[in-house]
Amino acid sequence: MSRIVLASLLLAVGCGSADPVAEGNAELLSAPYKLFDESRYPSWVMQDDSYVYYVAEATVMRAAKLGGAPQAIATLAEYPAAVALGGAHVYALYWNGDVARVAKSGGTAQQVATALGDGRGLAADAGAAYVVVTSGGGQRILRVANGAVVELAQSTYVTGLAVDDNYLYWADEAQPNPAIGCGRNAGSVHRVGKLGGVNVTLAAGLTCPGHIELDASRAYVNSWSLSDGQVRVYSVAKTGGLPRLQLNGDGGYFTVDASYLYWISKNRELMRTPKLWYWPQLLATSADFGPFVDTSRAYFWRQATGYQLYALSK
Known about the structure:
mainly beta; Neuraminidase; 4-stranded antiparallel sheet; 29 strands
């Protein structure tokens, strides 16, 4: 695979309770307010229009975005390999390759596939679950829907999955190196139709690609630099092309909306910048992980004697 060529370099160098608790800071865009407390580590955080979902130990939790205490909606058989929100269900992939789902409103988890391989990754939408399993020395990317399992693509080491209306996207480390965990300049971003088709390489030459996010026209992925240890964020058109450097460091936790890229800095600051140029703006301090966003708010977690989810108006 060829080394990545950076085009359109945009970075300017040198230049809970039921009643949410607000905090004041005149320098911030909007005052963050606490939605709820969680004593256990919240993993696999997901959202829809009204609720935030996450897994605490082996329990699937749900909390209203308007405030209120989290509620347990299901107990899983064990702590899962991956969890994803799709349509009216929360899906769980277990380490043995079993796939289960539970209604977002709560209930008993129902098994939808068994023993697909060693569970590694999961995405979902209203129609299917998309599962990554290790089998026979490689990885298989599968569509699970209505009792049928269909192979969509094969990969080496998937580190991130995302879906839109028509396609499944993933980041692939491609050549895992036992010394560093991934191959230098060997990672890539791919796309395949959700019903099958050609495995299209959108970008290549990435080192240690990981988390992947989508907007209407581009895929965003973070990539770890072996030379300086920085985690950078790149984007590439969903049709493929030259990658664009979006964030020159601090890209370990990031997300995007229609206009902005959001991240948490090494100084525990929730930041954002327009995606078309680099103009960083401080949104909140004491931010530990996240973030995620919806049409009107940005969300992040703080860690202090447990974990607290905060929100602020965008």
